[in-house]
């Protein structure tokens, strides 16, 4: 696996695919610079070597060249984060890009305009990729969030750099962290899978059953399993057409010696609202008109025991509707257990939009081993797929 350390960037122009798809407020100020900060170590290494950097990214889902999606809005914040002035090219290909790239001196940084102003980017167009490739000497992919897309800048471009392409620090760390769970894990390995639907996690479950010792199932998925096992779930979210699948997962897990842990009690509410009436009930006996919205105390005690005995932990999906404080207790408790296990030497990886949001919201970001930056990309890796953006560098 080629990384930045395999190259000396002195007097070289590195063209880097970053994921600067950051949120902006109504005045176009960056409200969360995490993704820019995540790319800083890669950029710092290249500049320290005496190289220059050309950054390419997308922002939002523009239909053609729309100013509200222009990357010019993030130039000031990028300069601030990197600690160097960032130049801006008003296009990502053509004269503005080639002129700015040609004039770039060692130690300088250039940001290209939004790649998705061209439909050729998402179409994986070879000519478009070639125009991008012509701007730099070495191609670096540091955008895990888009590594599962065969776009021009994430995958196709790599063919123009047969021997001069590598992973950036962030992408290398993502691959390493996922491999630590999927390939080189220390046992016992526990996967915590939450979220609302079994259907969205089925391929992940099937792929990781061979790699884990324990699987904790929480969130809305719980009720599909409970109903399949003959329980009454009241008005809880439930995929009736996935009950056979739930039973098949339980059968497979038993066959493979994987212990499945499902909540035994839940915090039920008489309305989907933070101010609803609540009661703790047995998960198999949720009254009509009530719905399970968080894991109950007995369930959490069971989960704590499993987590604290684990050496490798994967967390993907919350245990309840954590966006409402009344139903966030289970997810916060889970975060506490994983933080404690990590402090005791376990390796913990958190990934997937909702889990990452919960980890940040409740202050667990620096108490786990690694927080993944790519929701869709991470899920596809957990499903056992080879991501095109990664394969293109390895070829």
Can you lay out the helices and strands and say which pair or pack?
Layout: E1 13-17, H1 34-49, E2 52-56, H2 75-82, E3 86-88, H3 94-103, E4 109-111, H4 119-123, H5 126-133, E5 138-141, E6 165-167, H6 169-182, E7 189-193, H7 202-208, E8 214-217, H8 221-228, H9 243-256, E9 259-261, E10 265-269, E11 278-282, E12 291-295, H10 297-308, E13 312-316, H11 329-343, E14 347-350, H12 353-361, E15 370-371, H13 375-382, H14 388-394
Parallel strand pairs: 1-2, 1-5, 2-4, 3-4, 5-6, 7-8, 7-13, 8-9, 13-14, 14-15
Antiparallel strand pairs: 10-11, 10-12
Task: Summarize it.
This protein has 395 residues and is of the alpha/beta class.
What form results from the Cα inertia axes? Answer: elongated
The side-by-side strand order for the widest beta sheet comes to 3-4-2-1-5-6
**What is the radius of gyration computed over CA atoms, rounded to a whole number of angstroms?**
23 Å
Number of strands: 15
- Enumerate the spans where pLDDT stays under 50 for 5 or more consecutive residues: none
Mean pLDDT across residues: 95
Number of contiguous helices: 14
Question: Pairing-aware structural class of the strands and helices?
Answer: alpha/beta
**What order do the SSEs take from the amino end to the carboxyl end, as H and E?**
EHEHEHEHHEEHEHEHHEEEEHEHEHEHH
Task: Give the N-to-C terminal Cα separation.
Answer: 10 Å
How would a textbook summarize the main sheet?
Answer: 6 strands, parallel
Report the portion of residues in β strands. 15-25%
Q: How would you classify the quaternary structure?
A: single chain
Helix content: 25-40%
């Amino acid at each position: 696996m080629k990384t930045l350390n395999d190259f000396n960037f002195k007097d070289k122009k590195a063209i880097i695919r970053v994921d600067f798809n950051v949120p902006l407020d109504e005045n176009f100020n960056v409200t969360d610079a995490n993704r820019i900060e995540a790319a800083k170590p890669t950029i710092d290494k290249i500049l320290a070597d005496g190289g220059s950097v050309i950054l390419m990214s997308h922002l939002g889902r523009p239909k053609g060249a729309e100013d509200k999606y222009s990357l010019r809005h993030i130039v000031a914040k990028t300069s601030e984060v990197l600690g160097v002035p960032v130049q801006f090219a008003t296009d990502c290909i053509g004269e503005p890009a080639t002129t700015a790239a040609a004039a770039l001196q060692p130690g300088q940084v250039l940001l290209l305009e939004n790649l998705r102003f061209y439909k050729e980017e998402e179409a994986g167009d070879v000519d478009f990729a070639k125009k991008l490739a012509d701007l730099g000497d070495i191609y670096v992919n540091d955008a895990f969030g888009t590594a599962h897309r065969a776009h021009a800048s994430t995958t196709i471009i790599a063919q123009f750099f047969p021997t001069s392409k590598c992973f950036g620090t962030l992408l290398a760390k993502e691959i390493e962290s996922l491999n630590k769970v999927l390939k080189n894990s220390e046992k016992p390995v526990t996967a915590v899978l939450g979220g609302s639907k079994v259907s969205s996690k089925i391929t992940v479950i099937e792929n990781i059953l061979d790699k884990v010792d324990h699987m904790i199932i929480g969130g809305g998925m719980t009720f599909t399993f409970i109903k399949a096992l003959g329980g009454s779930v009241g008005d809880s979210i439930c995929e009736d057409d996935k009950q056979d699948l739930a039973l098949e997962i339980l059968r497979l897990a038993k066959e493979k010696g994987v212990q499945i842990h499902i909540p035994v009690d839940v915090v039920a509410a008489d309305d989907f609202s933070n101010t609803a009436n609540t009661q703790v009930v047995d998960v198999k006996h949720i009254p009509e008109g009530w719905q399970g919205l968080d894991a109950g105390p007995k369930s959490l005690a069971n989960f704590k025991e499993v987590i604290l005995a684990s050496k490798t932990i994967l967390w993907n999906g919350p245990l309840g509707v954590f966006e409402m404080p009344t139903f966030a207790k289970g997810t916060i408790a889970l975060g506490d257990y994983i933080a404690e296990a990590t402090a005791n030497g376990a390796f913990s990886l958190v990934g997937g939009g909702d889990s990452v949001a919960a980890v940040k919201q409740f202050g667990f970001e620096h108490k786990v081993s690694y927080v993944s930056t790519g929701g869709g990309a991470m899920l596809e890796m957990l499903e056992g797929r080879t991501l095109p953006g990664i394969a293109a560098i390895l070829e």
